[in-house]
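Handout, section B. The chain below has 394 residues.
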Amino acid sequence: MYTYTQMHFYWGLATLAALPLFLVYFAFRRVLASKKVEIEMLLYRGETLTTYLAAYGGSNETKKGETETLQNQIEGIVGQVFRLHYPWSEYCFALVFSASATITLIGLAFALAGLPLGLPTELQTALLGNTPVRNTVAGGLGALVWSIYDLVERYQSRDLPANRFFAPGVRIIVVGAVGAMIGTAANDRLAAPLAFAIGALPLSVVLEYIGRRARKQLGIPEPKTIQTHPSFDSIQGWSADLAERLARSGVSSVQALACANQFELYLRSSLEWRIILDLSDQALLVLYIGDRIQHLRALGIRTAVELAELDWSEGESYFKGIDRNELILSIASALRLDELQVRHLVRSISNDATVNFVASLWSDDTPGDEEADFEGAPTEIRAEPPESPESLRA
């Protein structure tokens, strides 16, 4: 016969199993505070804010009758971006969902071991030593362990959107269900360890396996693989690790990379700021000329901004010692286009709002730009950069 103290103790232990989810979340909120300051400081540089407004628009948070200063504009823009990608309500729902799944799983494990949880006697007896339940618990525990590991890894890389906190709960349910089915395909001795090991697999792999088995049983043909064009292979520095990081941030095509808001991508990914600028710049040129971008690298042109300089720097010293017309003919030969087509291509790229925005980010991404900008700013919009994360936390 159990006591209420024992029952509360074991349910308390089950609840503590969900504590790591909340610890990771609160640690990540501090990371977000520092990220917010970093992005605000980036917007303070040179003409970055002006070009950002031209490319993406501004904030609608200025109150009627309020004079919008530079700092108000920047705080409004960054605040909107943060509320869009990191709303506290979504994190709250995700944490409650995954914590509930975790507590239920640990409760099942305790019931399986015969520990007193205050359950009806008939249910406690049915669960005690039940093989399918044992396999379900083994799969769920594997999913929980690897989910916490994944959260910690993503925390270290500053990549924790709300959907990642839904993942532990979903993973526990899906892998637990697969664990219950494993007993039909493996002997009792191997079923539980195998179910636990499946929890280490990415959820997409588990779902793909379930879908493939279901399609085979129902006689449904395998879906066709769609090849994206242009390919990411045209971008220098591309790798499987980089593809995975960008996929987590919602970038699955060259077009998505080229058109992404660089500040939002910096928020959602664990990539360095200059790497994001370089990837975006390359992707913009790939959108225009495809894999022929490789033929321009021998000419010292690897990004859209570098090609646009042919138009922007006409009559200036950027091409000092270089015959621009000969360079245009060399580009035409490399791309197998005529001179008129190359001139039109250069003009189109140089007038592209996103290319101009990326160019301003490159030009402002140098030490000392912040000081020059504030000294030369008009009085009515002059503002000092924030001094500490505390003043800008959401």
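Note. The chain is about 65% helix and 0% strand. Compare this with the example in section A.
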